[in-house]
Design brief:
Layout (H helix, E strand, L loop, with lengths): L18 E5 L6 E6 L9 H12 L4 H8 L3 H14 L19 H10 L4 H8 L1
Length: 127
Amino acid sequence: MPDHRAPSDCPVCGEHLVVTRLGCASCGTELAGIFAPCEFCALPASDLEMLRVFLAARGNLREVEKHLGVSYPTARLRFTGVLQRMGLAPMDESRAEPEASEPSREEILSEVASGALSPAEAARLLS
């Protein structure tokens, strides 16, 4: 199975794309129509992994923290980011409940050094 993800937005006008054709890789059968979108399919691999870990931990962020090797505030921020990208949490941080324990700059840099956090994610957290 290819590891390519279908785009979710039109490269011409920017509107959301709809799935109109499905095909079987085994026998070549094709189905055409307008199908409901998969809200998980557009998520990057890191978000899907976060969801898998969260589900395996039965929603316990302390277990997610241990599995990912990050601090609790970082695990919570990552999960909030997934929720935001899925449209399940407000994108405007001023409307979100205040974080009492956001990770410090030192914690973030330490997690980048250990490989638990990507430089891009660290940059986002530090901005």
